[in-house]
Amino acid sequence: MSRQDWEHAVDRELAGLREQHLFRQRRVVTLLDATHVEVEGRQCVNFASNNYLGLTHHPRVIHAARHAAQAFGAGSGAAPLITGYGPAHQSAERRIAAWKGTENAVLLPSGYQANVATIQALAAIGERAGGGTRFLLDKLAHASLIDAIRSTEAPHRIFPHSHLAKLDRLLADADPRQLQVVVTESIFSMDGDAADLAGLAELKVRRPFVLLLDEAHASGVYGPGGAGLAAELKLAGLADLTVVTLSKALGSAGGAVCASAALCDAVVNFGRAYVYSTHLPPSAAAAAEAAIDVMADEPQRQRRVRALAARVRSELGAKSLALPPGDSPIIPITLGSERAALEAARVLQDQGLWVLAIRPPTVPRGTSRLRVTLCSEHRDDEVTRLIAALAAFR
Ligand code: PLP
User: Fold this and answer.
1) How many domains does the structure of the chain reveal?
2) Is the pTM here over 0.70, yes or no?
């Protein structure tokens, strides 16, 4: 393709996105504190971040990050198998494994990479064992899980969202030599609903499969000390591998896979996204470790964000807004068209409420929405303003 042709293709494709209201644009957002932002000179209450417990701005978390940067430097300087794996990483891994109740944990620079490296390791295990690996993925699983599977040559099947009867049929159909890996989230990122973990536990008794559970949005918000939804339901041993992000309720950055020592070693050896990337900064690891301590010491944060979620869900329900089932602080208001979702977000932003429109390909076509998220640090009067403003979209 000539330069002229590909430049034309770029312009045409971007113009197509604009016409379909699918163009994405960055805005510089200054985080003023855990729940307030300034965007283009306007101060807003932030109802769009995943900082569910406000820990991005917790003094103990900031102190831990600062202390680790002073002690070990601003960056890790190399991939973890070279010189990038230091005492802050090792200490955070031990803390995360204890928190999740697994034998071991492996830190990665992002939750996205944690999913990619974990899936790559599972694909390599099946391939080396001879029968290969087959991934069975919930239809609404996060893009990082889809991309992870695409980065391997392993086959995959997608089952309808939370449809365990269909998953059961797919498992019944499996080639017994193949490693079957079921991939799902515990709290879904864009719908805020929960996977049927009890149903998966029942299925696991009948069918052999490995369960990879992404607890990105459940960690911090559910379970004792924020250990996640599986821990809350007393199903902590259900997942063979659990991925957590350090970037959401933990207020830091990075991801971790929690599993047996052998599976963690498999990620370290076969997870290309682990091996070939500079490790996360020691400050991020130390901040995440401090966040886990804060969650244990300040359980009122989890109680508060869940009470706010219950309040918003019940008051919006009383105002006839249709919400998907669930009790999480992720509350989608589905409006349908991209244009309607963008316009609704603009109306809210004009009222000083920072809420964003979520459009395809992040969500299926025809389900563009506002994605509202709550934080333990939101004030009651701010939430009252949010509810009043959202009532306009019933
Ligand atoms: N998994 C889920 C379910 C997510 O929602 C996200 C991020 O939005 C990730 C993984 C990736 O995590 P990170 O942002 O730390 O890369």
Assistant:
1) 2
2) yes
